[in-house]
Specification:
The structure is a single chain. By secondary structure, the protein is mostly helical. The chain has a single domain, classed as 2-Layer Sandwich (Protein Binding, DinI Protein, Chain A), CATH 3.30.910.20. The protein is built from five helices and two strands. It has a two-stranded parallel sheet. Helix 3 runs antiparallel to helix 4 and helix 4 crosses helix 5. The longest helix has 55 residues. It is elongated. The protein starts with a helix and ends in a 15-residue tail after the last helix.
Length: 174
C-alpha cells in the first residue's frame, strides 16, 4: 500500500511539473489586431442600438394607438381581442428584433475574433511544446504556482508583443 501511495505522489508531482499557466485575457487584450475589432464591434453596436431605439419608438407609438382604439366607445369584445393580439404581436416583433441584433453582434464578434484566437492558441501550443508542458490553464484559475510556470511572457514574445510579468502591456521601449 505504501508503494502505491508513493507512486501516486510521484506521478502527481510529475504532472504538476508539466503544468503551466497563461494570462490569456491580458495577452489577447495586448494584441494589436484586437483594437480595430473593438472599434468595428462598437460601431455595429451603436448602429444596432439606434435601429432598436427607432423600432422601439415606432412600437410604442403603435401600441399607444392600439390602446386608444381599444378604449373608444362602442368597441366590441372581439375588436378588443383583435387589438390585444396586435399589441402582443408588436411586442413579440420587437423582442425578436432585439434578439436578432444580439445574435448578429455575437456572430460578427465570433467571425472577427476567430483568427486572432487561433493565432493566440497556436502560440500557446508552441510555447507549451517547447517547455514540455502537458497542461496549460488560464491564470484566472491558478491559486498558487511555482516560479516558471507562467508562460505568458514567452507566448507574448512569440506573438511579437510585450507584456509585463503581471500581464499588463509593457511600456514602449522595454
Amino acid at each position: 500500500m505504501k508503494k502505491v501511495l508513493l507512486l501516486l505522489f510521484l506521478v502527481a508531482g510529475t504532472a504538476m511539473a508539466q503544468t503551466g499557466f497563461v494570462q490569456y485575457e491580458a495577452i489577447l487584450a495586448s494584441m494589436p489586431e484586437v483594437e480595430p475589432i473593438r472599434k468595428e464591434l462598437g460601431d455595429l453596436t451603436t448602429k444596432l442600438r439606434g435601429e432598436l431605439e427607432s423600432a422601439e419608438a415606432k412600437s410604442a407609438e403603435k401600441l399607444q394607438d392600439l390602446q386608444y382604439q381599444a378604449q373608444k366607445p362602442g368597441v366590441t369584445v372581439e375588436q378588443k381581442q383583435s387589438l390585444a393580439q396586435q399589441a402582443q404581436a408588436l411586442q413579440s416583433e420587437f423582442a425578436n428584433a432585439s434578439k436578432a441584433a444580439e445574435l448578429q453582434l455575437g456572430a460578427k464578434e465570433n467571425d472577427l475574433m476567430k483568427p486572432i484566437l487561433t493565432k493566440l492558441n497556436e502560440a500557446i501550443q508552441a510555447v507549451s511544446k517547447e517547455k514540455g508542458l502537458k497542461l496549460v490553464v488560464n491564470a484566472s484559475q491558478v491559486v498558487y504556482s511555482e516560479p516558471g510556470a507562467n508562460i505568458s511572457i514567452d507566448v507574448a514574445k512569440r506573438l511579437g508583443i510585450q507584456i509585463d510579468a503581471d500581464g499588463t502591456a509593457a511600456a514602449a521601449g522595454n
